[in-house]
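Researcher: Sequence of RNA polymerase sigma-70 region 2 domain-containing protein follows. Predict its structure.
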Amino acid sequence: MQKSNYFIKGILESDEKIVTEIYNLFFHKVLSFVYKNNGQREDAEDIFQKALLQISARIKLRKLEVINNSFEAYLFTACKNLWRRELNKKQKRVTNHDVKELVNEELDMTYVLLEQERWELFRDKLEQLSGNCKHVLNLFLKKTSYDQIVKQLGYASETVARQRVFKCKAKLIEMIKADKRFRNLK
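Model: Prediction complete. Tokens:
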């Protein structure tokens, strides 16, 4: 059995041995990420548990048997997205003293699942682009200046780099909108 399927089966069956194995193998990376991003061990434990619940719900909802990427990468991405969401909520609470946010946990989980599916669609389509487009968009998404893009990719000018970024973004958007998952994720 493929390792991803082994972990998925363990989560779905609430197999304590497999869930403990998942925790032992992957928690340290999530803990490190949360520490680096203003969190505590308890935060990392909560996020890790929520991610496992999210994965379980997603698999039951979509009847998924296999996660395309490695299980570790999928789990870590889910944890990162959840932690960033928590940080955004905390920031809103700090900056809006008068606003009290009552979070419906079920609704929140639905948003997290939707966000994760959108991210997966984006990553899938980004991977389907040509090598040059992937490289250009990765540089653009990392906020690399057009001047640096020109130097790294050997374009004639910043105008050429801007046009290439624009064309690659347009192609990516077109591919995303053409995917049948897009209509469900609006």
